[in-house]
Amino acid sequence: MTAEAAESAVGGSRIAGGLALLGPKETALLRLLDDAFRDWGAAEGAMEISAPPLYPVQQLADLDVYVNFPQLALVVGGLQTPGNGPVEGRFAPDQLAAPSLGLSHATCFAVYRYLQDRQVAPDTLVTLVNRCFRREDHFDGLRRLLSFQMREIVAVGTFEHTQEVIARYRERIEALLGLLGLEVVVEAATDPFFQGGARALLQRMAPVKYEFQVDGLAIASVNTHRNFFGERCRISYGEERTTAFTGCVAFGLERWLAVLIDRHGSADKARTTVEQVLHELGPA
Fold it and tell me: Model pTM?
């Protein structure tokens, strides 16, 4: 997991150390997919927001990010001695100020910060795409990256609303993958989203995350958070200001590229197929 990892190429893209520079054809395929997933949300009235890829570390700590996913965390700090450059590609610890910003490993965190201390409709839907960062134990081309793009559609409001949204999009994802000729395995994930207490017990009894795996790679997921984020960010709905439930549908865009390019041999051929399939699938 070093930045000095050998550079590889996927079509016109360059990939090294978990960082990908996508070429024009790969970028066009990624945009086609993202536009389609965004339109799925927009068709159901989802409002689209934009967000930064990093946050004050305390904001992420308030969401238990560093308790539940410490192995993925990346933080950012300024330089104590701006005049000194890195040595052998690294800054020494005594050159760095205490990290005060955290790089987010999931897109949906922005939605809960945006809605914090607000009252929402019981059937709220939000969508956004953002850059995510994960300090994985290894990287693998476009399949597993340090920095990647994730589109999410997030349901906020009643528990029934979150489950209806997840069910609809699960069906639509499976339909899309079927038309693309990609064999999918839907598997319950074991991410330790909740640590201890009643939520952790519920997670063991009823999984809160299901992944859509193609060729052993999770390219999308549906996630139930119950009222965790509603409580932490004080999001409510209705006249009685009931704490909101949340759930989300997530698409790892570069991972979709990985399986499609591998299947079709090039981004151009994959894009042609995706365009045809999206036309056949029709609007959401």
Answer: 0.91
Closest CA to 123 of 173, 163, 172: 163
Would you kindly state where each structural domain of the chain is located, as residue ranges? 8-51+105-281, 54-103
CA distance 171 to 177: 10
For residue 42, which amino acid is it? A
Residue (of 101, 110, 208) closest to 151 by Cα position: 110
Domain 8-51+105-281 belongs to what topology? BirA Bifunctional Protein; domain 2 (3.30.930)
Least confident of 143-147, 189-193, 222-226, 263-267: 189-193
- In terms of Cα–Cα distance, which of 172, 169, 249 is closest to 209? 249
Would the pLDDT of 97 be above 60? yes
pLDDT of 197 higher than 70: no
